[in-house]
Amino acid sequence: MRLYGNATMAVLVALGFSGGTPNLVATSIVPAWTSVIGWEVEAIGYLSLLQLPYALKFLWAPCVDRVALPLQRRLGRRRAWILWSQLACVVMMTALGAWGPVGGEPSWASHASIFAVLLTVLTFVSATQDIVADAFRTESLEPEQLGAGAGVFVSGYRVAFVALGAAALALAPKFGWEMVLLGVAVVALACSLGTLSATEPAVRAPPEPGLRAAVVAPFASLWNRWGIRVLALVAFVLLFRLPDQLGNAMTPPLLLKGLAYSPETLGWVRQGFGFGLTIAGALVGGWMVARWGIIRCLVVFGILQALSNGGFLLIAEAFNASTEIARSAPPPIAPLVGTIAIENFVGGLVSAGFVAFLMSVCDRQQVATQYALLTALMAASGAIGGALSGLLARAFDYPGFYLLTILAGVPGMALVPFIRLPACQDLRNAPASSDF
């Protein structure tokens, strides 16, 4: 109750839900939609490249600290940016519903080109919303609240994925994907009311004017604190979430095409059933970070993250899932339920621990740019890995592909000893060297 029982945490749940809604569309609904209408796995994988704005958001992150938007005088800088980015996401999701993909092989010269442009713009404004929400969260929390704040924000984010994702997959066969996108946009519009009820973080020293202060200083600050080991930090951020990023890109094609589960089944099992487990994982992860320290949790969560993909490997192998041959009937539900249960709980743990680590690294005077840079690195690995996932799945088939996703966890775990620096403080106020 000391960690979670306050108004700030409630606001972070709402902001997490709002940020998760457009990301759900880009990373879950669109792959499922294109899988159902018959796109090849390579084309579905290439759609991950349209998520590159998540990886490049550090380029315009300084604008969040320096550009004034309408209503800023009334709402404050952070809340004004959040509100306008939320409204822009609503517009783009509505447009995606009107210009959705068509069946068969995509024709990039016509309809699919409009769809690709709209999806790219959606990820751009969604990435902008993430920039300011991350800054808002970091500025609103005390150091001992970082783990709990990360947990509740991730919980809200995952609620959007689980609740809206389940509803989308269950309702799409009946009402059509276009109506599903419109419904998601309406929910996203309602989320903007939470921004109006939030409290603007205390104003710290205003950012220094000039290009050097906006662009160079945040990177120089990281170098001054980390030295040459900043390279280890960059590599760790790029690689730590790679097993999850690779596996998630091909999970809809595996379940819908390779194993012939229906969208309704995928909706209530992967999204609906995983709802409580994801929230539990994020909250338990936040509590564990406060008790154990960040570094120790990263070790445990990282191992569990890689091993959690073993469930998909087992059901793909047991039921002969293939990218080449479509099954006539789906396998039993029980193996899917067990695999999804593990995936969702571990995903909550990993997200809470990793977000807490990223927040602990940032200088609060330059949090928007530094946090955007770090999460952009993670998004870059996700976009590139997702783009390659279709080719890897085709080359190795689903069982071999998921074995590769497990092995992809090794490089990130090998880098953990090199990120044990004073910049990453134990949340119990113990020396950083005791975290491990």
Q: What structural class should be given to the helix and strand makeup?
A: mainly alpha
Shape-level CATH architecture = Up-down Bundle
> Largest sheet, if any?
none
Shape descriptor: globular
* N-to-C span: 26 Å
Low-confidence parts, pLDDT < 50 over ≥5 residues? 422-436
CATH fold name, please?
Growth Hormone, Chain: A
Elements, N to C (H/E) = HHHHHHHHHHHHHHHHHH
Classify the helix fraction into a percent range: over 70%
Q: What is the typical, i.e. mean, pLDDT?
A: 81
Q: CATH superfamily, please?
A: MFS general substrate transporter like domains
Distinctive features:
436 residues, mainly alpha, Growth Hormone, Chain: A, 18 helices
Describe the 3D structure:
The protein has about 425 residues and is mostly helical. About 75% of the residues lie in helices and about 0% in strands. The chain is built from 18 helices and no strands. It has helices at about 5-35, 40-45, 50-55, 60-65, 70-75, 75-100, 110-140, 145-175, 175-195, 210-225, 230-240, 240-260, 265-290, 295-310, 310-320, 335-360, 365-405, 410-415. About 55% of the residues are buried. The model is unreliable at about 420-435 (pLDDT under 50).
List the helices and strands and how they pair.
Layout (H helix, E strand, L loop, with lengths): L6 H30 L4 H6 L5 H5 L4 H6 L5 H4 L1 H22 L12 H30 L5 H30 L1 H21 L13 H16 L3 H10 L2 H17 L4 H30 L1 H15 L1 H9 L14 H29 L5 H41 L1 H6 L22
